[in-house]
Structure formats: C-alpha cells, structure tokens
Design a protein that fits this description.
This protein has about 300 residues and is α/β, with parallel strands linked by helices. Helix content is about 25%, strand content about 20%. It has one domain: Metallo-beta-lactamase, Chain A.
Amino acid sequence: MSARSFGAAACLALLSGCAPPIQRPEALPPPEQVTPRQWAATCSDWDEWDKPAPPYRIHGSTYYVGTCGISAILVAGEGGHILIDSGTQTGAAVVLGNIGKLGYRPNEIASLLSSHEHFDHVGGHARIKQSSGAHVVASRTAAAVLRSGKTGPADPQAGMHEAMQPVAVDVLVADGEIVRSETAVLTAIATPGHSPGALSWQWQSCDAEGACLAIVYADSLSPVSRDDYRFSDHPDYVGAYRAGLQRLRELRCDILLTPHPSASGMVARAATGSMVGGMSCTAYADAIEARLDKRIASERADD
C-alpha cells in the first residue's frame, strides 16, 4: 500500500492551489442535530433518496448529514472538514443544510470524497464544490466519470443512469492512500465491483471521553447491472471485485456505514441509540460475495 498522504486543512498535497481560509462568525447558531433514535424515527428502510433527514452524531467527530435514503458522512475538523458523498443534485441541498445545522459552514469543507461514481451518490458533487470550494478527491476511474458527468463504458450499469453535472477533480487517490484532517486519517480502500472506480474508506474516530472506534464506510458493492451485462464474461473484473471484498474483510470495523443506509442495517442500529455493533465488515463482504456467486451461477446456467 502507498503511504502518500493528502491533508484536508488548508490545502491538499500535490495541489497548486489551496482552499480558501476558514472564516467563522463570532457566534455560530446552536447545533440542531438529533439523536440516532430520532433519526431512525424519521426514516425507514430503503427510504426515498431525496427525503430530508436531520443530522446526527455517529461517534466522536463523525456525523451523518445525508438524506433518509442516501448517506453522506461528515468528519469534522477544526481546520477543515471531510465530506464523503454528496447524494443527488437535489439531495446535496439537504447535505449542505444539515452541515449548517451542526453549526458548520460550507467553506469549512476542505475535501469532498466519494464511494462510487453513480449519480445517486455523487450527483451533488458540483453543487457542494461550488458552495464550499472543497477539493474533490476520487479514484482515477471515478475521476473520469465525475469530469464528464457520464458513467464509463466499463461500468456494469453503463447506460442506466442519467447524466450528472460535471465537476473538476483535484486529487487522485489509489488503494491505501490517505486523506488527513486534524481529527482523522481516512484510508482509501479500492473496492471495485458495483462500479469500476469505487472506494471504501476507513478511519478512527474518538469521542470526548477518549473512546476511539474504527469506522468503515464500505461501498455499495452489490452486483447490479444492465440486462445485457454478464459478470461471467469479465473474469478480470470479477477478480478485482473479489479482491476488494477480501480487503474489506481484513479491516478493523467497529462501526460499518454504507452509501445506502439499509444495506448495512443502519436504520435498525440507529433505532437502538448506537451505531456500534450490528453487521460487521466481514459479514457484509460475505453477503455481497454470496450474491455475486449466485449471479454468476445464474449467468452460466443460461449458457
């Protein structure tokens, strides 16, 4: 794994420009976050993508700022925040509103990361970047999609999604590289499969009492495709898919988060009052691989 590091405070390494300095007003509005239980009472399993939902603290400096149906995760830091995923173009307005409800400002977002390059998770990137000036960070494959606004031809779902507003990508990351803030170091984990450029992210988040937990934002990873795509016709892609699942299994994973909250039982966990426990990264990877195996077996049965 590479040890290259990208800081999220004033400017990211290898960039010619820096994010604008954070200028806080003397008094911020009081936070309006809710408890995980209150969030769960607002949302339901497999809820609508753009349905507004209030923000809540996951653990330490990590917050949920997405909609009911699509996750967006904020890792707050005194010198700049890291945001993972933006939702749809419409959902991005909810994300920005939720960041404001936490008492933060858009120009405090230093780095904008992503899980995978589909419009339901990154369609709002251009809106977030325009509002914040944040540096967009992506894998090389995902970057091509973000810059064009169109899903790449190697994607199993190519042709299924509406075009997105293009957005400039400032930093390319590969497996094992990190993005750093004052409160967290996020490691990129290459997990292609649901899309070719997908990344999962792992970091440690500590609360005020010093309790530190490993958080993993694991990509969707489900073997979904257009009708004429056969995973069995792409053995190299399937090999990379399985390798990413194995990387996921090997991670320390105290709290598992996913781009679609219900994919890892986030609504049910939130209803208990804590995001700790529930589905593990290993169980999540095993379930995905079982679906992949079933899909390939079905394709071969049709030969």
